[in-house]
Amino acid sequence: MKSRSPDNDTWPDAQKIDAWLEWKKKCALALCTDPQARAYLLAFGSRRFQTCKNRIENYDGASITIPVPEDCWHLFESHAITKKRQEDAKRYKDWIFDRLEKVNVYGIESGAYGLFRDIARDYVHNEYHERRVDSLEAHLGNHQDSDTPLSLEDLVPGTVNSACAEAINNEYRDNAEDVAERCFKNLDDREKTAVLASWLGLSLAHKVVVKAAQCQHTMLYRAKDAVCRKMKDEISSLYQDEDPQSLKCLYLFSLHALSERSVTWGRKDSRYHAVFVAAEEEVCHG
Fold first, then answer.
1. Quick check: is 206 in a domain?
2. In this structure, is residue 135 part of a structural domain?
3. Residue 69 Cα to chain centre, angstroms
4. What's the domain range around 50?
5. Are residues 124 and 52 in the same domain?
6. Alpha helices, DSSP H only, in the chain?
7. What is the pTM of this model?
């Protein structure tokens, strides 16, 4: 019998789970004994990097070269095994599995996908971020509550506190989870479908999306706009005293969290299997 390729999404779920569990036990892909399992996990990580690359290129027109699969996985392992979630001090590797009531391939891979997405974004930012060069004497405005000029040089002595920045980001994420939870439970299936398809990088006019939603694509675009309005209204009502920039950051974090919920929701409904398959095909075939 011809063996199934681990690069193919038809590889049995039980074997995918075994591959992930062996990696969890060994803590390093290089120590895993099954060559097909290693190939499957490498392909999984590489595809996730490719997905993020495509989205970023579509957004700002950048030309990005992603690492080879082994390097993609090394970045993932470095993050998953060494970094911890602030709220429970669990390493991300353990969180991928321990957050599930029952071990299943969709639950494992949705958690891993979220980590790969963050890692890919950090990689692109570090490797391709355009550096600006400004004069230290460039006028930025005035000091708060005074007419004293403020220049870039005034800001140089104090170094950036990375721990503080991380704490701020964690606060945004915590608040965003609350906003997303409030919003998601008030969305109808059409709105959830619009969020899911957008997150997966599919056009709302794609035939599998339209079929799953059981409505015309014009209604899906209206649903997507409605979701954005609902989220902005929710944030504005909960955080009335925040400045516009903070509200914008919270909106982006909340949209991220809402989208992740849509993936979990869609994975549980057989109507959306074709949507996930279509998204994978677009990634694999460019």
1. yes
2. no
3. 19
4. 1-129
5. yes
6. 13-26, 35-60, 69-82, 92-98, 105-128, 162-184, 189-199, 207-213, 217-238, 244-267, 273-284
7. 0.46
150 belongs to a structural domain: no
Cβ count within 10 A of residue 76: 23
Count of structural domains within the chain: 2
* 200 neighbors 276 (Cβ within 8 angstroms): yes
- Is residue 110 located within the same domain as residue 199? no
Q: What is the pLDDT along the chain (286 residues), one digit of tens a residue?
A: 333 334 445 678 888 888 898 888 887 888 888 888 888 898 888 888 887 777 666 545 556 777 888 888 888 887 776 665 555 545 677 777 776 667 788 778 877 877 887 787 777 766 665 544 444 455 545 544 445 555 544 444 444 444 445 555 667 788 888 889 989 999 999 999 999 998 888 888 999 999 999 999 889 999 998 898 888 888 888 887 777 777 888 888 888 889 889 999 999 988 899 998 888 776 555 4
